[in-house]
Amino acid sequence: MAELTVKPWRRAGKDRLYVNLPGPRGQAVAWLDCLTGVVTITDAAHESSALDLIRDWCRTDSRSVPPLTVVRKPPPPPVPPRPASPPTVLPALPPLTTEDDLASNRPGEGVRGMIRADESKRKWLVRVAAKLSGDDLTRSELSKGLDGERLVGGLLDGLRAYGWYVLHAVPLPSGADIDHVVIGPPGVFTVNTKHHPDAMVWVGDKRLTVNRNSYPYIEKSSLEGSRTAELLHRWCGLAVPVHPIIAVVGARTLTHKGKPDVDVLDGAQILTALGSRPPLLEAHRAAAVFDIARRRSVWAQFGRRTG
Questions:
Q1: Rounded Cα gap, residues 104 and 162, in angstroms
Q2: Which of 70, 109, 211, 250 could form a disulfide with 169 if both were Cys (CB 3.0 to 4.6 A apart)?
Q3: What is the CB-side half-sphere exposure of residue 248 using CA atoms within 13 A?
């Protein structure tokens, strides 16, 4: 057993003798109140040795100590175990039907729907005349958007050969969509494609400027990413890293003048940007996230708060 030490202590009218474990910060195993003769045992394992040391000290010290009375300090009550947290109850995953499965969506599927709706509003005779003459009735902005999504979507589809998962035109309750959702070892990426042929694009902290015209792309993409993270956490029961990205297509220059919380990059370089990210998601978890994200009915809850 470790050798014990004795140490007198006086302060503010108190006169005590402590019996400690060895070492500069040795814990007290007993202490004597020299004014009352009460010995308090704080460690029952050292009681016998501590009392012998206290008696020896009392015989050799010149002070008069009343007859010894031994009291034993009860051990602290056991710490009750922490109650187990109730298991997280996940929403019931709806059955996967052909209509509900987003995995078959082509790049630009949402834009194609807008183009079809736009064309259907025109009179039949105008559509026939345009077809015969080769005129394009599609709004130029929609056509540019479709071209951009096709380009970026085609590049992203190449990731499937390496075990990644890619979804296109993920519909949202607002009627808009997320151009591309990519799931791989670095996590989940929400990709918005912006096609600005031959434009000068400047990236700030909060805004993106195209030929000196400011657009709220960064703010919207950031919100889209955070809401996607909330949605997947609700359905998966685990925190899923989500990285919002703006892929700029066709720009003459892309200049960064700020550090937004969204990655803004040249769409042609998107594979390099995604592949250079460190792995954060194990393969089986990525597959589980894809199994949830491919369901149209899951995204119907996008942006809705729970609780």
A1: 18
A2: 109
A3: 25
| 34-62: b (≥16 Cβ within 10 Å) or e | beeeebebbbeebbebbbebbeebbeeee
DSSP 101: B
Instruction: Grade residue 136 by pLDDT with cuts at 50, 70 and 90.
Output: very low
CA 178 – CA 193 distance, rounded (Å): 9
Q: Decide if pLDDT at 252 tops 60.
A: yes
CA 239 to chain centre: 5
Q: What is the arithmetic mean of pLDDT over 151-162? A: 94
Distances, alpha carbon 27 to alpha carbons 24, 31, 177, 207, in Å: 9, 11, 66, 62
Q: What is the mean pLDDT of the chain?
A: 86
Under 8 Å CB-to-CB from 16, ≥6 apart: which residues?
Answer: 8, 9, 10, 31, 32, 33, 34
CA 56 to chain centre: 64
Q: Give 3-state DSSP helix, strand, coil % of the chain, rounded to 5.
A: 35, 25, 40
Q: What CA–CA distance (Å, rounded) separates 135 from 119?
A: 12
Least confident of 63-67, 230-234, 265-269, 293-297: 63-67
- Measured distance CA(236)–CA(288) in Å, rounded: 8
In this predicted structure, which of 106-110, 185-189, 190-194 has the lowest mean pLDDT?
A: 106-110
